[in-house]
Amino acid sequence: MGSLGHQVHIFFFPFLAHGHMIPSVDMAKLFASRGVKTTIITTPLNAPFFSKTIQKTKDLGFDIDIQTIKFPAAEAGLPEGCENTEAVLTNEMTKKFIVATTLLQEPFEKVLQEIHPDCIVADMFFPWATDAAAKFGIPRLVFHGTSNFALCAGECVRLYEPHKKVSSDFEPFVVPSLPGDIKLTRKQLPGYVREDVEDDFTKLLKTSKESELRSFGVVVNSFYELEPAYADHHRKVLGRRAWNVGPVSVCNRDIEDKSGRGKEASIDQHECLKWLDSKKLNSVVYICFGSMASFAASQLKEMATGLEASGQQFIWVVRRNKNGKEDMEDWLPEGFEERMEGKGTDYKRVGTPGKPMITWPLFAEQFYNEKLVTDVLRTGVAVGVKEWVGVHGDHVTLKSEAIEKAVTRIMVGVEADEKRSRARELGETARKAVEKGGSSFSDFNALIEELSRHRP
User: Fold this and answer.
1) Which one, out of 72, 152, 218, 330, has a CA that is 20 to 30 A from the CA of 310?
2) Which residues of 299-326 are buried (b: 16+ CB within 10 A; e: fewer)?
3) Whether pLDDT at 350 is above 50
């Protein structure tokens, strides 16, 4: 689609981490389903994670493809095959991985010169993409993968530095200029914000912010009705040219679409669905911390104990360690699996739209996300962690009693029913937002129209 019959062609270039690739690929599929030609740029070892779902989309007649560029692992001092954050195991490797991602600029520019798309949707962690796109007169959109609320909260903290005006780490402060009287503590802010350090990662964030301000705008995986005050704040107060086109996951119409993104599950999806089908509606808790977070064995043991004490049925996604083994005997309470027979299983792919949540922030902007879920949307409860710890939790931050309490609170009683009802309503609103006439559908049309006008 586009003016004068020209089909708009957009490149999607996600950061090389599952949490970034999955929504970017979903967005590419969604745009393709509406007549846009889309190409996903990635590296050879990351392409197989979503090649199946892309082929299925192509088979439906949509114009979507994958273009690979070589990942400069050796040039950055990384071992060959280290093309995804999952393979980055130390701080030293993190520094080298950041260097490698900056070296992607040259091969990326060669593809731009050869194909010359109408627009690039590049991840926030590729700040050089704004300059690369400018060389060829191509608009660059930034993709963060988070909400308007988190983007606004992070920017208000950066601009006004309220954490420097409190006397202790756990003294609450109101985030200045942010709607809703949102309170945080210094300990809930990312370590790189509260410690005011200048390392490789903070330099990357700084250049990302500068790059964003020079870009064509921001594309957000959200919808207006979810967070109207923050969508308005993002555009009108912070002055971002932003288009809310989400939730992009709605492009996945069936279980195969959902399960064909990211890493392979360790158990058969049909086995899991059969187990779920045998349970009552709204009776199963799904526990998942994404593709990067890891916990100490002692914390996993507290989780298991709390889950058992809650008496609820559950699906628990447990990440394999770097040796590819779960080593369950190190952290599962003795006899846990036998006692949980029929009550619990572990699995990787369950859809969760329109469901209430228990929040357990660990790193990145996750404490902002918690405030959105618990204070603004009121569709979840906080499990009770007080401190931003980063990707690797190496000690117990929560005892089993707190976990039991949060699980019971979200599953049983009047409060649970109210949160479930609100979450269900938002789920329905989300589906309407992406349909013809919906707010996200309208933002999508406005974006494509603008890109068509921008074409020389």
Assistant:
1) 330
2) bbbbbbbbbbebebbbbbbbbeeeeeeb
3) no
Whether 268 is catalytic? no
373 touches 379 (CB < 8 A): yes
- Count the helices and strands in the chain (H runs, E runs): 17, 16
Catalytic residue among 9, 18, 20, 163: 20
Which residues share a beta bridge with 3?
Answer: none
Cβ atoms < 10 Å from Cβ of 381 = 22
pLDDT, tens digit (0-9, with 9 covering 90-100), for 160-211? 999 999 999 999 999 999 999 999 999 999 988 887 677 788 899 999 999 9
The answer to whether the beta carbons of residues 247 and 223 sit under 8 Å apart is: yes
User: Percentage of residues in the chain with pLDDT exceeding 70?
Assistant: 90
Separation of alpha carbons 204 and 89, rounded Å: 19
What does the pLDDT average to over 290-298? 85
Tens-place pLDDT, residues 46-77: 999 999 999 999 999 999 999 999 999 999 99
327 is annotated as an active-site residue: no
The token pair that represents 113 in the structure block: 């010169």
Structure pTM?
A: 0.92
Residue 33 token pair: 């389903």
The predicted-structure confidence for 419-440, as pLDDT tens digits, reads as follows 999 999 999 999 999 999 999 9
Query: What integer pLDDT is reported at residue 127 of this predicted model?
Result: 98
Helix (H, G, I), strand (E, B) or coil at 103: coil
* Distance (Å, whole) CA 409 – CA 358: 9
Of 123, 144, 163, 234, the catalytic one is 123
User: What residue has token string 């949307």?
Assistant: 377
For residue 10, the cross-strand partners are 38, 119
